[in-house]
C-alpha cells in the first residue's frame, strides 16, 4: 500500500512542483504510471518471478550505464555496494532485528550512507544507488534460488525502498546546499 501512496505523491509533486524540461517531466510521470499499472503483472523466466516494471527498469538502467563512462573507482564502488546489499539481506535473514525495524529501511539507510560518502554529485549518487539496488536484488534472487527459496524481483517493498531512498538522497543534497550557502554568507 505504501508503494501506491508514494507513487501518487511523486506524480503530484512532478506534475505541479518539479521544475525541469517538459519532456523530462512527462517521461518521469509516464514511467511512474507504467510502474503503477504493470506492477501487478509478473513473468516467470528460468524459475525467477520478475515483475514487468523490474524488467523495464533494468533496460533503462542498462541504457544509462551504456551512455555514461565509469572509472575504475566507480566500478569498484558499485561492486562493493552490490555486495553490501546482498550481505545485509543475508544478515537480516538470520538476525531478529527485522522484527523491530523494517529490514528494507535499514538496508536502504546503510546504502544511502555509503553512496553519500563515495559520490559528491546528486545524480551520481542516485545512479549508484539505483544500480546497486537493482543488481543487488538480482544477485540476491540468484543466491536465494540456489538455496531453493523464492524471491520475487520487483516487489512493492523494493519500489517503496527505491522511492524513499531517492527522496532521502534529494533531502540530503538539498540540506547540504542550503547549509553551504549559510556558511558562505556567514564568512562574508
The major β-sheet equals: 2 strands, antiparallel
What percentage of the residues does DSSP assign to strands (E)? Answer: under 5%
Distance between the termini: 49 Å
Q: Unreliable stretches, pLDDT < 50, 5 or more residues?
A: none
**What is the alpha-carbon Rg in Å?**
18 Å
The sequence of SSEs as H and E is: HHEEHHHHH
Shape: globular
Number of strands: 2
Give the helix/strand class: mainly alpha
Helix content: over 70%
Which strands sit side by side, in order, in the main sheet? 1-2
Per DSSP, the total helix count is 7
Mean pLDDT: 83
Task: Please sum up the structure shown.
The protein is 77% helix and 4% strand. With 188 residues, the protein is mainly alpha-helical.
List keywords for this structure.
188 residues; mainly alpha; two-stranded antiparallel ribbon; transmembrane; YphA_Bacsu; membrane
Verbal overview:
Helix content is 77%, strand content 4%. The chain is mainly alpha-helical and 188 residues long. The chain has a domain at 70-187. The chain has a two-stranded antiparallel sheet. The radius of gyration is 18 Å and the shape is globular. It starts with a helix and ends with a helix. The model has no long low-confidence stretch (mean pLDDT 83). The chain crosses the membrane at residues 46-64, 76-93, 99-119, 126-146, 158-176. Keywords: Membrane, Transmembrane, Transmembrane helix. InterPro entries: YphA_Bacsu. It holds the Pfam family YphA.
Indicate the topology.
Elements: H1 2-16, H2 22-38, E1 42-45, E2 48-51, H3 52-67, H4 72-94, H5 103-118, H6 122-146, H7 156-187
Antiparallel strand pairs: 1-2
Helix pairs in contact: 1-2, 1-7, 3-6, 4-5, 4-6, 5-6, 5-7, 6-7
Keywords: Membrane, Transmembrane, Transmembrane helix
InterPro entries: YphA_Bacsu
Pfam families: YphA (PF24124)
